[in-house]
Amino acid sequence: MRKESLLVKIWNVLWPLVIYLIAQNVVSIFGTMVLSIVSSLTHADERGMVSTDTITNGVMDMYYEYAVGFILVSALICIPIYYRMYKKDCEKAGEVKKNIPISVKDYLAIIVSGAALALAMNNIISLTPLPIIFTGYEDTNEVLYGGGLILQILSAGIFACIVEEVSMRGVTYLRMKRYWGKKKAMIFSALVFGIYHLNVVQAVYAFFLGLFFAWLYERYDSLWAPCIAHMSANLFVILLSESRVFEHILNSLVGYCLATCISIILFYYGWHWMKQTNPVVELEFVEKEPDTLKRLAQEYKEQEREEE
Which of 76, 189, 222, 279 could pair with 173 in a Cys bridge, judged by C-beta atoms 3.0 to 4.6 Å apart? Predict the structure, then answer.
Protein backbone atom coordinates (compact mmCIF):
# COMPACT_ATOMS: atom_id res chain seq x y z
CA MET A 1 0.00 0.00 0.00
CA ARG A 2 1.47 3.37 -1.03
CA LYS A 3 2.26 5.75 1.83
CA GLU A 4 0.34 9.03 1.67
CA SER A 5 2.27 12.29 1.76
CA LEU A 6 1.57 15.01 4.33
CA LEU A 7 -0.16 17.20 1.75
CA VAL A 8 -2.44 14.33 0.73
CA LYS A 9 -3.34 13.71 4.37
CA ILE A 10 -4.11 17.39 4.94
CA TRP A 11 -6.24 17.44 1.78
CA ASN A 12 -8.16 14.31 2.84
CA VAL A 13 -8.84 15.88 6.23
CA LEU A 14 -9.92 19.34 5.10
CA TRP A 15 -11.67 19.02 1.74
CA PRO A 16 -14.96 17.66 3.21
CA LEU A 17 -15.42 20.90 5.16
CA VAL A 18 -15.67 22.82 1.89
CA ILE A 19 -18.99 21.07 1.16
CA TYR A 20 -20.82 22.97 3.90
CA LEU A 21 -19.25 26.30 2.89
CA ILE A 22 -20.30 25.78 -0.72
CA ALA A 23 -23.82 24.80 0.35
CA GLN A 24 -24.12 27.93 2.49
CA ASN A 25 -22.98 30.17 -0.35
CA VAL A 26 -25.23 28.55 -2.95
CA VAL A 27 -28.28 28.69 -0.68
CA SER A 28 -27.47 32.31 0.24
CA ILE A 29 -27.21 33.30 -3.43
CA PHE A 30 -30.55 31.74 -4.35
CA GLY A 31 -32.10 33.09 -1.16
CA THR A 32 -30.86 36.60 -1.91
CA MET A 33 -32.30 36.35 -5.43
CA VAL A 34 -35.69 35.47 -3.96
CA LEU A 35 -35.41 38.33 -1.46
CA SER A 36 -34.57 40.72 -4.33
CA ILE A 37 -37.73 39.72 -6.18
CA VAL A 38 -39.81 40.12 -3.02
CA SER A 39 -38.22 43.52 -2.30
CA SER A 40 -38.85 44.80 -5.83
CA LEU A 41 -42.50 43.70 -5.73
CA THR A 42 -43.02 45.16 -2.25
CA HIS A 43 -41.50 48.57 -2.94
CA ALA A 44 -42.73 49.08 -6.52
CA ASP A 45 -44.76 52.23 -7.15
CA GLU A 46 -48.02 52.49 -9.10
CA ARG A 47 -46.14 52.23 -12.38
CA GLY A 48 -44.30 49.13 -11.20
CA MET A 49 -41.01 51.05 -10.94
CA VAL A 50 -38.54 50.75 -8.06
CA SER A 51 -35.03 52.15 -7.60
CA THR A 52 -31.95 49.95 -7.23
CA ASP A 53 -31.14 51.54 -3.85
CA THR A 54 -34.58 50.72 -2.53
CA ILE A 55 -34.24 47.09 -3.63
CA THR A 56 -30.77 46.84 -2.09
CA ASN A 57 -31.87 48.33 1.23
CA GLY A 58 -34.91 46.08 1.32
CA VAL A 59 -32.82 42.99 0.59
CA MET A 60 -30.31 43.83 3.34
CA ASP A 61 -33.08 44.31 5.89
CA MET A 62 -34.64 40.98 4.98
CA TYR A 63 -31.28 39.19 4.68
CA TYR A 64 -30.41 39.60 8.37
CA GLU A 65 -33.89 38.36 9.23
CA TYR A 66 -33.75 35.23 7.06
CA ALA A 67 -29.99 34.48 6.91
CA VAL A 68 -30.30 32.03 9.78
CA GLY A 69 -32.89 30.22 7.63
CA PHE A 70 -30.29 29.86 4.87
CA ILE A 71 -27.99 28.20 7.42
CA LEU A 72 -30.80 25.83 8.36
CA VAL A 73 -31.40 24.80 4.73
CA SER A 74 -27.64 24.31 4.18
CA ALA A 75 -27.40 22.12 7.27
CA LEU A 76 -30.35 19.96 6.21
CA ILE A 77 -28.71 19.43 2.80
CA CYS A 78 -25.29 18.55 4.22
CA ILE A 79 -26.15 16.36 7.24
CA PRO A 80 -26.94 13.21 5.17
CA ILE A 81 -23.88 13.83 2.98
CA TYR A 82 -21.52 14.03 5.95
CA TYR A 83 -23.15 11.14 7.77
CA ARG A 84 -22.69 8.90 4.75
CA MET A 85 -19.02 9.94 4.56
CA TYR A 86 -18.65 9.16 8.27
CA LYS A 87 -20.16 5.68 7.91
CA LYS A 88 -18.04 4.94 4.83
CA ASP A 89 -14.88 6.02 6.66
CA CYS A 90 -15.71 3.72 9.57
CA GLU A 91 -16.41 0.77 7.27
CA LYS A 92 -13.28 1.38 5.22
CA ALA A 93 -11.09 1.49 8.32
CA GLY A 94 -12.70 -1.60 9.85
CA GLU A 95 -13.66 0.50 12.85
CA VAL A 96 -14.17 -1.25 16.19
CA LYS A 97 -17.38 0.12 17.67
CA LYS A 98 -17.40 0.54 21.44
CA ASN A 99 -21.01 0.16 22.50
CA ILE A 100 -21.04 2.56 25.45
CA PRO A 101 -24.55 3.22 26.82
CA ILE A 102 -25.30 6.84 27.71
CA SER A 103 -27.36 7.00 30.90
CA VAL A 104 -29.70 9.77 32.00
CA LYS A 105 -26.99 11.02 34.38
CA ASP A 106 -24.54 11.08 31.48
CA TYR A 107 -26.93 13.14 29.38
CA LEU A 108 -27.46 15.54 32.27
CA ALA A 109 -23.70 15.93 32.76
CA ILE A 110 -23.20 16.51 29.03
CA ILE A 111 -25.96 19.17 28.90
CA VAL A 112 -24.82 21.02 32.02
CA SER A 113 -21.13 20.89 31.02
CA GLY A 114 -21.85 22.17 27.50
CA ALA A 115 -23.93 25.12 28.72
CA ALA A 116 -21.49 25.92 31.54
CA LEU A 117 -18.47 25.90 29.23
CA ALA A 118 -20.27 28.17 26.74
CA LEU A 119 -21.10 30.76 29.41
CA ALA A 120 -17.64 30.57 31.00
CA MET A 121 -15.82 31.04 27.68
CA ASN A 122 -18.15 33.85 26.60
CA ASN A 123 -17.56 35.70 29.86
CA ILE A 124 -13.79 35.11 29.92
CA ILE A 125 -13.35 36.27 26.31
CA SER A 126 -15.50 39.35 27.03
CA LEU A 127 -13.02 40.35 29.75
CA THR A 128 -10.13 40.29 27.27
CA PRO A 129 -9.30 42.92 24.59
CA LEU A 130 -10.26 40.49 21.82
CA PRO A 131 -13.85 41.76 21.27
CA ILE A 132 -12.52 45.34 21.02
CA ILE A 133 -9.64 44.52 18.67
CA PHE A 134 -11.51 42.07 16.46
CA THR A 135 -15.07 43.25 15.80
CA GLY A 136 -15.91 40.86 12.96
CA TYR A 137 -17.80 38.56 15.31
CA GLU A 138 -20.57 41.18 15.61
CA ASP A 139 -21.61 40.63 11.97
CA THR A 140 -21.70 36.88 12.55
CA ASN A 141 -23.82 37.30 15.67
CA GLU A 142 -26.20 39.57 13.76
CA VAL A 143 -26.71 36.78 11.22
CA LEU A 144 -27.03 33.96 13.77
CA TYR A 145 -29.37 35.83 16.09
CA GLY A 146 -31.17 37.99 13.54
CA GLY A 147 -34.19 35.80 12.87
CA GLY A 148 -37.10 34.79 15.06
CA LEU A 149 -36.58 32.64 18.15
CA ILE A 150 -37.99 29.45 16.59
CA LEU A 151 -35.75 29.83 13.55
CA GLN A 152 -32.73 30.45 15.78
CA ILE A 153 -33.45 27.33 17.82
CA LEU A 154 -33.91 25.12 14.74
CA SER A 155 -30.90 26.52 12.91
CA ALA A 156 -28.13 27.64 15.30
CA GLY A 157 -29.48 25.62 18.22
CA ILE A 158 -30.06 22.21 16.61
CA PHE A 159 -29.29 21.48 12.98
CA ALA A 160 -26.15 23.64 12.64
CA CYS A 161 -24.78 21.76 15.67
CA ILE A 162 -25.55 18.39 14.09
CA VAL A 163 -23.93 19.21 10.74
CA GLU A 164 -20.83 20.66 12.44
CA GLU A 165 -20.43 17.62 14.68
CA VAL A 166 -20.90 15.08 11.90
CA SER A 167 -18.41 16.96 9.71
CA MET A 168 -15.90 18.05 12.38
CA ARG A 169 -15.91 15.12 14.78
CA GLY A 170 -17.40 12.46 12.50
CA VAL A 171 -15.14 13.10 9.49
CA THR A 172 -12.33 15.58 10.18
CA TYR A 173 -11.40 14.46 13.71
CA LEU A 174 -11.53 10.75 12.92
CA ARG A 175 -9.35 11.17 9.83
CA MET A 176 -6.86 13.23 11.84
CA LYS A 177 -6.88 10.57 14.55
CA ARG A 178 -6.01 7.81 12.08
CA TYR A 179 -3.19 9.89 10.63
CA TRP A 180 -1.67 11.50 13.74
CA GLY A 181 -3.15 9.87 16.85
CA LYS A 182 -5.82 10.89 19.34
CA LYS A 183 -4.09 13.72 21.24
CA LYS A 184 -2.84 15.57 18.17
CA ALA A 185 -6.19 15.05 16.45
CA MET A 186 -8.03 16.67 19.37
CA ILE A 187 -5.83 19.77 19.18
CA PHE A 188 -5.70 20.02 15.38
CA SER A 189 -9.44 19.44 14.95
CA ALA A 190 -10.19 22.07 17.61
CA LEU A 191 -7.94 24.53 15.74
CA VAL A 192 -9.74 23.79 12.47
CA PHE A 193 -13.09 24.13 14.25
CA GLY A 194 -12.03 27.56 15.53
CA ILE A 195 -10.67 28.79 12.19
CA TYR A 196 -13.83 27.53 10.49
CA HIS A 197 -15.80 30.26 12.30
CA LEU A 198 -13.83 32.89 10.31
CA ASN A 199 -13.32 35.46 13.09
CA VAL A 200 -10.81 35.60 15.94
CA VAL A 201 -13.25 35.99 18.85
CA GLN A 202 -15.38 33.00 17.90
CA ALA A 203 -12.26 31.05 16.89
CA VAL A 204 -10.90 31.21 20.44
CA TYR A 205 -14.32 30.30 21.85
CA ALA A 206 -14.81 27.42 19.39
CA PHE A 207 -11.29 26.05 19.98
CA PHE A 208 -11.95 25.26 23.65
CA LEU A 209 -15.42 23.90 22.93
CA GLY A 210 -13.94 21.82 20.11
CA LEU A 211 -11.49 20.20 22.53
CA PHE A 212 -14.37 19.27 24.82
CA PHE A 213 -16.51 17.93 21.97
CA ALA A 214 -13.66 15.73 20.71
CA TRP A 215 -13.13 14.44 24.26
CA LEU A 216 -16.84 13.61 24.51
CA TYR A 217 -16.70 11.69 21.25
CA GLU A 218 -13.82 9.61 22.58
CA ARG A 219 -15.46 9.12 25.97
CA TYR A 220 -18.75 7.78 24.58
CA ASP A 221 -17.65 6.71 21.07
CA SER A 222 -20.78 8.39 19.77
CA LEU A 223 -21.60 11.50 17.77
CA TRP A 224 -24.66 12.03 19.97
CA ALA A 225 -22.55 13.09 22.95
CA PRO A 226 -20.80 16.07 21.26
CA CYS A 227 -24.02 16.90 19.36
CA ILE A 228 -25.97 17.24 22.60
CA ALA A 229 -23.20 19.27 24.26
CA HIS A 230 -23.02 21.54 21.20
CA MET A 231 -26.79 22.01 21.20
CA SER A 232 -26.76 22.75 24.92
CA ALA A 233 -24.05 25.40 24.46
CA ASN A 234 -25.75 27.12 21.52
CA LEU A 235 -29.27 26.96 22.96
CA PHE A 236 -28.04 28.43 26.24
CA VAL A 237 -26.37 31.32 24.39
CA ILE A 238 -29.59 31.89 22.42
CA LEU A 239 -31.53 31.94 25.70
CA LEU A 240 -29.14 34.53 27.12
CA SER A 241 -29.37 36.72 24.02
CA GLU A 242 -33.16 36.54 23.69
CA SER A 243 -34.25 36.72 27.34
CA ARG A 244 -33.50 38.98 30.29
CA VAL A 245 -33.28 36.22 32.86
CA PHE A 246 -29.62 36.88 33.67
CA GLU A 247 -29.45 40.51 32.54
CA HIS A 248 -29.23 42.05 36.03
CA ILE A 249 -26.71 39.45 37.19
CA LEU A 250 -24.39 39.79 34.20
CA ASN A 251 -24.59 43.60 34.14
CA SER A 252 -22.81 43.89 37.49
CA LEU A 253 -19.12 43.03 37.89
CA VAL A 254 -19.77 40.91 40.99
CA GLY A 255 -22.58 38.98 39.31
CA TYR A 256 -20.51 38.60 36.14
CA CYS A 257 -17.54 37.13 37.99
CA LEU A 258 -19.79 34.97 40.17
CA ALA A 259 -21.62 33.55 37.12
CA THR A 260 -18.26 32.84 35.44
CA CYS A 261 -16.87 31.04 38.50
CA ILE A 262 -20.04 28.97 38.95
CA SER A 263 -19.94 28.01 35.26
CA ILE A 264 -16.31 26.88 35.53
CA ILE A 265 -17.10 24.82 38.64
CA LEU A 266 -20.15 23.20 37.00
CA PHE A 267 -18.16 22.37 33.91
CA TYR A 268 -15.30 20.89 35.93
CA TYR A 269 -17.53 18.68 38.05
CA GLY A 270 -19.54 17.54 35.03
CA TRP A 271 -16.37 16.69 33.11
CA HIS A 272 -14.77 15.05 36.16
CA TRP A 273 -17.85 12.93 36.80
CA MET A 274 -17.93 11.71 33.20
CA LYS A 275 -14.20 11.02 33.31
CA GLN A 276 -14.42 8.95 36.50
CA THR A 277 -17.37 6.78 35.53
CA ASN A 278 -16.38 3.37 34.23
CA PRO A 279 -18.46 2.51 31.13
CA VAL A 280 -19.50 -1.01 30.24
CA VAL A 281 -17.95 -1.59 26.82
CA GLU A 282 -19.03 -4.13 24.24
CA LEU A 283 -17.15 -4.38 20.95
CA GLU A 284 -19.26 -4.34 17.81
CA PHE A 285 -17.84 -5.06 14.38
CA VAL A 286 -18.97 -6.24 10.99
CA GLU A 287 -16.26 -8.78 10.24
CA LYS A 288 -14.51 -8.47 6.89
CA GLU A 289 -11.71 -10.98 7.44
CA PRO A 290 -11.52 -13.92 9.87
CA ASP A 291 -8.79 -12.38 12.05
CA THR A 292 -9.68 -8.69 11.76
CA LEU A 293 -11.97 -8.51 14.78
CA LYS A 294 -9.48 -10.23 17.07
CA ARG A 295 -6.62 -8.02 15.91
CA LEU A 296 -8.52 -4.78 16.33
CA ALA A 297 -9.94 -5.84 19.68
CA GLN A 298 -6.42 -6.60 20.88
CA GLU A 299 -5.18 -3.21 19.66
CA TYR A 300 -8.04 -1.52 21.50
CA LYS A 301 -7.25 -3.35 24.74
CA GLU A 302 -3.55 -2.45 24.45
CA GLN A 303 -4.46 1.20 23.88
CA GLU A 304 -6.68 1.16 26.97
CA ARG A 305 -3.83 -0.29 29.06
CA GLU A 306 -1.42 2.40 27.80
CA GLU A 307 -3.84 5.19 28.72
CA GLU A 308 -4.20 3.78 32.23
Answer: 189
